[in-house]
Amino acid sequence: xxxxxxxxxxxxxxxxxxxxxxxxxxxxxxxxxxxxxxTVTEExxxxxxxxxxxxxARGVDRGLLHGIPIAHKDAFYxxxxxxTAGTKILERFIPSKDADLVTRFRGAGTVMVGKTNxxxxxxxxxxxxxxxxxxxxxxxxxxxxxxxxxGSGAVLAADxxxxxxxxxxxxxxxxxxxxxxxxxxxxxxxxxxxRGVVPLAFxxxxxxxxxxxxxxxxxxxxxxxxxPEIGGPEIQPRPSGRGFEINDLRVGxxxxxxxxxxxPEVAASVRHAxxxxxxxxxxxxxxxxxxxxxxxxxxxxxxxxxxxxxxxxYQDRREDFGPDVFALLQQGLVIPATDYLxxxxxxxxxxxxxxxxxxxxxxxxxxxxxITAPRIGEMAVxxxxxxxxxxxxxxxxxxxxxxxxWPALALPCGLSKNGLPIGLQIVAAPHRExxxxxxxxxxxxxxxxxxxxxxxx
Amino acid sequence: MTDxxxxxxxxxxxxQPEDRVSAIAPLERLERAFRPLQQNIPLDTPxxxxxxxxxxxxxxxxxxxxxxxxx
Lengths: 457, 71
What we know:
heterodimer, A: about 450 residues, alpha/beta, two-stranded antiparallel sheet, globular, B: about 70 residues, mainly alpha
């Protein structure tokens, strides 16, 4: 169910928060084979649900998130609840405070039901965690859910909760959203504080949310779509009855880089979504971007160096790291300070160049990943007859927007012939998240993915 | 190009010889892509401003204090 549907049921007294929480716990237990949670917080969740029911009975309604179950990626500090970041090093770490984003959602009335599994240290995209086990994709349990926020993607795809948090340093919200057929929002860099989140790369880390629909993402972000079907105390329907309008929105389609070396089914599905946007009234134009590959180069260099500064003190505990993560941490150790600083200066120049595109378009449409979800353990995939590393095929289209700090929304736009979701990303200028929701909700309605497509039981 | 083998061996805590192969090949690829970008940076180019809303650590954690030790 969506946040909107649950909210309506709660307010019509068709269900209580306690009943909802108990049902969520039953679903989580039934889906334990996905290994999507590291910690489930049943007792605390039920106590919290009871408290929120009492509030509703007294007429205290915190808004559209009152009573909504939420799963937090296990990189977010949660007071009194273990926070591992997927590493053995933090397996006994119990924070005494919540992360800022956890505090925000708690204040909005959510009920935390657990902490989701992830790629170790958020430093990878498979969520094949050597310490807490591999997360399985509900669409095909032999495949990865993507990562690093893979557990969050899986719990949404399996419809266990309607809202989860994630972090995104090179695509770690949008990649699992694409591979799991759900929605992922990476807001503008710094929009939400990273305080209380185990860091990976200080100047690239973003915190964000994952949901089953774009409208739910808008609600959780605080950008309420004025849809009559949602209702609730804060929303008045617009006369048109539509959530958002996209007439005359200037949509840019990159003519370079973002459609190179794609799985043909991914390309076709994203092209279809672009045609749909045009049919809905958007003004679609092709646009040439300065040099996205350069963004990827500086991003990799910056991420390697910054991650190694965080974890350097533990490099003598090789046995406590997975081999892929340990290799990345070793690479970061040898990067000279002058190269790191020059990468940040090149970033300044690239950001200036890229910002000019907002003179001619309001947003960009592009694929999230070059491929659909790979199999667990698969290291390379074939695209156009050539082998490509799974990590690069997953990140090369997302990472540029971490370097620029631009907001990006991933949403499903179709299924491959073998039944795997395909993701589309909408990207806007800093602090223009509303555009993402406007176009995203219009495409969501027109493409009908959320209502038409579900993972096999 | 950088002699990454030498750099890896010269660290205060050197990268072990058996780890150098997996660490160095990606660095060589990254360096080939990065050097051309680095060559033409104007002298007065500042660092990218990363400070906006990052608020600092929420508390003293095992990461900051080094308290996370094996049992």
